[in-house]
Amino acid sequence: MKDAQPSTIYLKDYQAPDYWIDTTHLTFDLHEDHTLVTAVLQMRLNEAVNCGEALPALTLHGEDLDLVSLHRDGEELENDRYQLVKGSLTLPVEQPRFQLQIVTRIRPQENTSLEGLYKSNGMFCTQCEAEGFRKITYYLDRPDVMSVFTTKVIASQARYPVLLANGNAIDRGELDNDRHYVTWEDPFKKPSYLFALVAGDLEYVEDHFTTMNGREVTLRLFTESHNIHKCDHAMISLKKSMKWDEDVYGREYDLDIFMIVAVDHFNMGAMENKGLNIFNSSCVLASPETATDATYQKIEAIVAHEYFHNWSGNRVTCRDWFQLSLKEGFTVFRDAEFSADMNSRGVKRIQDASVLRTAQFAEDAGPMAHPIRPESFIEISNFYTLTVYEKGCEVVRMIHTLLGADKFRKGTDLYFDRHDGEAATCEDFVKAMEDASGVDLTQFRNWYSQSGTPVVTVTDRYEAETGDYHLTIAQSCPATPGQEHKKPFHIPLGLALLDEQGQLLPLNAEGDKEQVLSIKQSEETFVFKGCKSKPLPSLLRNFSAPVRVRYDYSKDDLVFLMKHDTDSFNRWDACQRLGVMAIEQLVERFDEQAEQAVDSQLLDAFGVLIADPKLEHAVKAEMLCLPTEASLAEQAEVIKPLAIVAARKKVKQAIAETHSAALLALYNQLSHERDYCPEAADIAERTLKNVCLGYLAALDDAESLQRMAAQYNGASNMTDRRAALGCIVDARHRDEHLVEQVLTDFYDRYKDDANVMDGWFAVQSGSAELGTVEKVQALMQHDSFDPTSPNKLRSLIGGFTGNMARFHTTGGAGYEFLADRVIELDKQNPQVASRVMMPLTRWKKFEPVASGLMKKALQRIKAVHDLSTDVYEVVNKSL
Length: 879
Ligand code: 0A1
Ligand code: ZN
What we know:
Keywords: Aminopeptidase, Hydrolase, Metal-binding, Metalloprotease, Protease, Zinc
Shape: globular
Organism: Endozoicomonas euniceicola
Strand order of the largest sheet: 6-5-9-3-2-12-15-14
InterPro entries: Aminopeptidase_N-like_N, Aminopeptidase_N-like_N_sf, PepN_Ig-like_sf, Peptidase_M1, Peptidase_M1_dom, Peptidase_M1_pepN, Peptidase_M1_pepN_C, Peptidase_M1_pepN_C_sf
Number of helices: 27
Pfam families: DUF3458, DUF3458_C, Peptidase_M1, Peptidase_M1_N
Bound molecules: O-methyl-L-tyrosine, zinc ion
Number of strands: 31
Protein name: Aminopeptidase N
Helix content: 40-55%
Distance between the termini: 21 Å
């Protein structure tokens, strides 16, 4: 419990701090039942804020701390000289510069929230973003207070041979009682959220990187010894990232050493602590036998993301947490471009746009909708969202599009130059972009302050006599909580026009065949001259803005775009739109229970697609995937979960039956033995092969079952084994015995690997066939289920809540199960509790019965006494 009466914090109330902390000396004395933390802080009045006579009292943040002693300039302050209330320590100040010495006792062993200092599998580690440092010592735990940190870590040599903190190691030695210490010094000023410490029995792999100015950097990746063979991919990814940031942004690494530590218990993916990144082990460890292609790509992206934060986040940090997207949106953009350069650019764009349109659009349409720069919050941990990260990335991408690559680079150079060593704002970023480019971004700033997904409605008219083509573009944005009316956005809209042969038409006198229209008005019309017949518009090319586009495409139009468009994203999108139309048609008449035929145009189009010899494997694989259930739900007016599941399944089956021979031929063509390699071309082949396997599985016959079993048993890598496992589990109605057999086999092979076991839980709880609430409950009791591990909770509970067929099953048992878990988890780990409950917050969009039951489950959570601020905020905003 963080706060008795959770209060709302507003961006408009931001005030600079009264005091700065120039230096921070920390000593951690780590013991088995407690840790003693001694903090020595050199404090200085912030004269810019306080020029009055009296020195303001100093209030430091602190949570769950035992204050052992407090000294100011060497004088001990007894407890009548300071005030200790929940969450803070206030003391009088007599000099503009003074030293504080604060000793606190904390209990990392009992810290289940995984914020601050805690233990994971016997090792000590920290997570301080956003406000975890206050669980370590009393401090100005806010990102605009930047300090030079020195950290001495003392612990048992036998239990914790490795002692790490930020920066460079400057001293080490042995002490009495088998204890030892290492002192670390980080020369760069940083806010407390970037502090990190690790103590454990770890091994490391080491490599080196020579920077563009010839500096040697040691790279070390630490894990428990049994995982040491799984670090290669992360190390390669790190070196690629370091080189890429030099080449593309001119950014060089700045310390002598860069360290990554893998920990099993971690609330998020990873954390960019200065010089000492801490990673969820699932985002760093990989071997061909244990990690899928998707995991390999995730690792590459997250290693890059955290590394890139060294500049976009650490050297230039955020003034306050409302500016979170300043570092996150920008860094996601950087890592997305890195991944696009390392893999298939077209596919990366499709995947990112797909996540955004499915999950971020849903967030923007839900009760927690917020702008990428929120205006208020109760609990900042609830704002590490798809909106701040992914939409924030899209906003930076739009700046890139509007400025062009060269001016964008000038803008980032200016931004880093101007604000190096500072805590900056989103406004500082936009201003640097404007100043460096001369492009006016005044109206563009609405993207930072307005929430909701804009709707761009496009209509057109062709005048045969003149050859003029009129394209009218109107924009609007639905109301969102606290924002009834929106101002028009500045939207870059990628456009091309296709003639009847599928050729791109010149759009202007210069002959450009692609253009980015700069849309600023609520409605505007563009006229294109010299068209011999009515062209077909290719709109929002490369997903040039995070908006919904409405244009009245006929099915013929979509089939035409699928074949002829030169933009991978739009080819894929045409395919998705066709899929949505076909599935929605069945959903609408689901209640009538009448036999309905699947749209023949879709079936024909998929036939052409499967046979297309020229299409890149990776793009073909994406295009062949029908819209997901989640994306269909997002696009539905009212969500009918069971109808969506049934309709989608039926369409998939129809595609499989109509094109079984071609799918099988493609599957066979792609099934050849070779050594595993996580490179783009190989990944694309495996992905396409497994998409085919998925369709063949939908045939639901003995032959395909055999094929899946053969792939499972013969797999030489986890990608193929997992794909087959998923198909087999979903075929449970055919062969229950086989399902049990492969699940047992998988368990026996991987039971000692926590990250692989996450997948074993997820595949069961996420299965339409297997994942009943009773099954999930039983799995929670399984020996390999660790209820204190966020990864396990996410796999099992998250797998289940994403299982549309089962979570929304009649009677609401799934909702009640989730409410029970949230209530229970809230005492243990509020961040995870508030995240897993998100699916319930969408209750208003569901059909009446489901909706009412979801609301009831939320009300039960709301009625609980002493909710954490995390769950309190989400439940109250969603009811
Ligand atoms: N800054 C990290 C994400 C992160 C945020 C919060 C955390 O704990 C509450 C942990 C990690 C990133 O963007 O990767
Ligand atoms: Zn980040």
